[in-house]
Write a structure and sequence with these properties.
Layout (H helix, E strand, L loop, with lengths): L2 H15 L8 H20 L6 H28 L4 H27 L6 E2 L11 E4 L7 E2 L2 E2 L6 E4 L3 E4 L19 H29 L8 H12 L1 E9 L11 E5 L5 E5 L5 E8 L4 E5 L5 E2 L4 E3 L11 E4 L3 E2 L1
Parallel strand pairs: 7-13
Antiparallel strand pairs: 1-2, 2-5, 3-4, 5-6, 7-10, 7-15, 8-9, 8-11, 11-14, 12-13
Pfam families: PAAR_motif (PF05488)
Length: 324
């Protein structure tokens, strides 16, 4: 059991708390409750409550028949001049009572495999109905059922979730379970883990000393630094622009000499740029640009003094421009 009952309980709480229920939209909300309950009914059928799906399906059919009758009564009453408020109130009270009865019977059918709880707080009709704890202890079981602890939530048929206010003060269950964590429980868990690690380390040192074997420990920080140095790459990028307009010049062929001596020819894109990624660092790249009077600016731009006529020129030696 779990999400299905939780969703149904929350939806029913909203319905029960509404001062007025709409004839047109209420059936859809009840259908949502039914669908949520059927999710957990299927699980219950495989865990010792095989009749749960059929019981819930029959109960919902009866609920819809009741809704049809209440809707017809509302329609007739609202047609009388000035009769709508009373007709609406009658529909609201009637469908709340029928919905509460359906949800309570459905929870009881599903909870045949577990314990149910009844809210002790007096409340108007309809009552909150039976409830179940959907998330209890993960490691402590009583009669094959998860133990319930203080602050675990009871999801009631019509009242939504309510936390368990009190338990046996002499019983402490320390796993994480479904209840909220606290700073004290987190600190206790951290201390227990540190003690366990210390005991394991002491045992390893004792065994190593007894056997005469050297103790070799891998430094995680050193390993991360070594891996980072192996993965270090560089990017080489240059751009060709018009010196007078500062506009990029696409389609210019650049001969690039990589740090390992390999030569590649790249053509500038629409932004006048050539970029080569994943270069091994450190290293030096050279670029040759075939624009007359080209020069290299401090921003790694080849500029041609406003003249883009192609003519051979010497290469420029550049360092890769960035680390990846």
């Amino acid at each position: 059991m779990g999400a299905g009952i939780e969703d149904a309980s929350k939806t029913m709480k909203d319905l029960m708390g509404a001062p007025k229920l709409d004839v047109g939209s209420t059936p859809a909300k009840l259908s949502k409750v039914f669908s949520s309950l059927m999710q957990d009914a299927g699980k219950a059928a495989g865990e010792g409550a095989p009749a749960a799906p059929a019981s819930i399906g029959g109960g919902f059919s009866s609920l819809m028949v009741t809704n049809v009758a209440l809707t017809a009564a509302y329609t007739a009453g609202a047609a009388v001049p000035g009769g709508e408020p009373a007709a609406s109130q009658a529909y609201t009270e009637g469908i709340k009572a029928a919905g509460a009865a359906f949800a309570s019977s459905a929870i009881t059918a599903i909870a045949g495999i577990t314990d149910t709880h009844i809210c002790p707080i007096p409340c108007p009709i309809p009552p909150h109905g039976p409830g179940v704890v959907t998330k209890g202890s993960k490691s402590v079981f009583i009669n094959n059922l998860p133990a319930t602890r203080k602050d675990d939530e009871v999801f009631e048929a019509c009242g939504g979730p309510d936390p368990v206010a009190m338990g046996c003060p002499t019983v402490i269950i320390g796993d994480d379970g479904g209840g909220p964590a606290t700073a004290e429980s987190a600190a206790a868990q951290d201390q227990a883990e540190q003690q366990s690690q210390a005991q394991s380390t002491a045992a390893a040192l004792t065994d190593g000393a007894a056997s005469g074997a050297p103790l070799v420990e891998v430094c995680e920080q050193c390993e991360r630094m070594r891996q980072a140095s192996e993965d270090e790459k560089a990017t080489f990028a240059v751009r060709v622009v018009d010196d007078e307009t500062d506009e990029p010049v696409p389609g210019v062929a650049l001969k690039i000499t990589l740090p390992d001596g390999e030569e590649e020819v790249h053509t500038t894109d629409e932004q006048g740029t050539v970029e080569i990624d994943d270069l091994e660092a450190p290293g030096t790249c050279s670029a040759a640009c075939d624009i007359e009077n080209a020069r290299l600016s401090s921003t790694y731009d080849f500029v041609g003094m406003g003249d883009t006529r192609l003519t051979p020129r010497d290469s420029e030696s550049l360092q890769p421009t960035g680390q990846q």
